[in-house]
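Before we proceed, please read the two lines closing this message. Let me know whether the structure tokens fit the sequence:

…
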Amino acid sequence: MSIAPIVKRELRSYFNTPVAYAVALFFLLSCSVWFLVLDQFIFQNVASLRGYFSIVPVVYLLVIPALMMRSWAEERQTGTSEILFTLPLRSSELVAGKLAAGLILIALIALLTVPLPLTLSPLGDFQRGQILGEYLGVLFLAAAGLSICQLASALSANQVSAFILGVAFLVGLTLLNTLNGLLELPLWLSGILNYLSFSFHFESFDKGLIDTRDVAYFAVVTALGMYLTTKALAARKWR
């Protein structure tokens, strides 16, 4: 049995509630207001969308936990998790299905931003390769964040605590590298903080560069989050 039924179920639950629409509206408004008003793109005289995509890791701090807080916490509250576990699917497949649904929704939201570069294209010579790299970064970062926040939901008793724990996880992982600017740290410790930071690995994508080291980092974080979520579900099920 494939994960397709789980993906369809999760997408249906997103669009049958205000969640998908609220998240999409918040994402689009936040990034647009930052880019056009606060970052003042029009007055910079530079044909680049870096200002638009640079705010994505910060917006994700709220968007990703809001999407994933329901994934297991709500299942547990309503008792539907017991039904899921009776399906001919492994826990890892259930986790993968929920992650895939969240990533598809993020991809659809990202697709809604495409009219922006198309509208601005007459104003300058935008680099298509750079924009493509930025969109890939948005998806890689989302996959890692969704995986971590699904773990937060699996560890939480309700949606509120899942949201708070997800935000805490993402804030820690996203802003780790800012400690280097606040504290005088040894080079080896500074390097570790950079390596563990979402923002640090997103910077290359924000410049339109696709570095295999950054791709590998987000892939490892995504896989680790899925693995830990599976173990957390197994522990709760046996308990």
